[in-house]
C-alpha cells in the first residue's frame, strides 16, 4: 500500500508555493548536491561504504539527505533524496561502479546498435518498481524523518544525459561516442532515448507515490548539444516526461507535484523550456537573471538558480555581490524564484561559506 503522510503537516512549504507560482514571503533556497563531499559529516556517515551501497541503504541515504537540513536548519527550504541519476542505467541491466575521486564508470558501455547488448537493453522488460525499490524506501523513510520540516525532492537524469553516460561509459570531455550515436545511428539513439524517457515517467511517479513532493530532471550534459541537436535529441524526451508524468501520478489517485527541468549549458533552450509543461526551469550561471526572469514571468514559469558554484571559493564580498545581482534580477525574491546555485556545489567548499550564501539570500529577500 502507498504510504500516507496525512499525519505529518508541513511546517515549511515555501518551495512548493513558489513552484506553483504563488507570491511568497521570501525566496526559498537549496543547492544541488547539498548532501555531498564538501560536508565532513558526509564522509563520516558514508565511511567505507561504496557509493551505490549508500544509495541502496534507506537508512544511510536518508541520513545523508538530512545532513544539510540539520546543519542549515532555518536556511534551507528543501531536501533532495540522496541517490544518483545512474540508477536508471543500472535498472536497465548495465553495470555502473563509482570510482573514488574519479566518478561513475561503466565497465561495458554500449558500443553500436548492432551489438547484442543494445538489443538486450532495448528488449529488456525493465521493472523500475522492483529494481529501484530501495529508492522508494529511502524516500518514504526520509519523508518520515523530515517530519514536515521541508519538502522532499525526487529526481532522475534526463534521457540525453543518461544516454551519454551509457555510451561514453562515464564522464566525458569530448563526447565522441554519444556524438557518433546521434549523428551515425540517429534512429537507434532515439529508440533508446524514448525507452529511457518512458522509464523516467514511471520512476518519478513511483518516487511521488513513495513521498517525493517535487521532482527535478537533470540534463547535465544538455550543453554539449547544438540548438538544432537539442531540439532533436533532448527536448522531445524532456517533454515526454513533463507531458506524461502528471497523468501517471493522477492514475495512482495522487495529486501531481511541481516539476523542474535543469538543462545545464542549454541557454538557447530557455524559450522552448518556457513553453513546456515544467513548472520550474533551473538555470546555470550562463544566464543573466534579469533577462531570464523577464521571459519566464511572461510565460508563467518559475526559475531556479543560478550563481556560479565557484563563487563559494571567493570572498564574502564577492558572494554578496552575486546574491545582490540575483535578487535584483529575479524580481526581489517574492515570486517566481527558487534560489540555488547554477550547478552542484563542488568539493572543498567550506560549509560556512555556503551558510553565508544562504544567509545573504535570506537577508536580501526577506
Ligand atoms: O545532494 C544531492 O544533490 C543529492 C544527491 C545527488 C544527485 C541529485 C547525487 C549524489 N548525484 C546526483 C545527480 C547526478 N549524478 C548528476 C546530475 C547533477 C549534476 O550534474 O551534478 C550527475 C551528472 C551524476 C553523475 C555523477 N555521480 C557524477 C558526475 C561525474 C561526471 O561525469 O562528471 C559524480 C561524481 C557522481 C557521484 C556522486 N553522486 C552524488 C554524490 C554525493 C557523489 C559523489 C560520491 C563520492 O565521491 O562520495
Automatic annotation (TrEMBL):
<keyword id="KW-0627">Porphyrin biosynthesis</keyword>
<dbReference type="GO" id="GO:0006783">
    <property type="term" value="P:heme biosynthetic process"/>
</dbReference>
<dbReference type="InterPro" id="IPR006361">
    <property type="entry name" value="Uroporphyrinogen_deCO2ase_HemE"/>
</dbReference>
<comment type="similarity">
    <text>Belongs to the uroporphyrinogen decarboxylase family.</text>
</comment>
<keyword id="KW-0963">Cytoplasm</keyword>
<dbReference type="GO" id="GO:0005829">
    <property type="term" value="C:cytosol"/>
</dbReference>
<keyword id="KW-0456">Lyase</keyword>
<feature type="domain" description="Uroporphyrinogen decarboxylase (URO-D)">
    <location>
        <begin position="153"/>
        <end position="169"/>
    </location>
</feature>
<dbReference type="Pfam" id="PF01208">
    <property type="entry name" value="URO-D"/>
</dbReference>
<comment type="function">
    <text>Catalyzes the sequential decarboxylation of four acetate groups of uroporphyrinogen-III (octacarboxyporphyrin) to yield coproporphyrinogen-III (tetracarboxyporphyrin) with the formation of intermediate hepta-, hexa- and penta-carboxylate porphyrinogens in the heme biosynthesis pathway. Acts on a number of porphyrinogens, but only coproporphyrinogen III can ultimately be converted to heme.</text>
</comment>
<comment type="pathway">
    <text>Porphyrin-containing compound metabolism; protoporphyrin-IX biosynthesis; coproporphyrinogen-III from 5-aminolevulinate: step 4/4.</text>
</comment>
<feature type="domain" description="Uroporphyrinogen decarboxylase (URO-D)">
    <location>
        <begin position="28"/>
        <end position="37"/>
    </location>
</feature>
<dbReference type="InterPro" id="IPR038071">
    <property type="entry name" value="UROD/MetE-like_sf"/>
</dbReference>
<keyword id="KW-0210">Decarboxylase</keyword>
<dbReference type="InterPro" id="IPR000257">
    <property type="entry name" value="Uroporphyrinogen_deCOase"/>
</dbReference>
<protein>
    <recommendedName>
        <fullName>Uroporphyrinogen decarboxylase</fullName>
        <ecNumber>4.1.1.37</ecNumber>
    </recommendedName>
</protein>
<dbReference type="GO" id="GO:0004853">
    <property type="term" value="F:uroporphyrinogen decarboxylase activity"/>
</dbReference>
<keyword id="KW-0350">Heme biosynthesis</keyword>
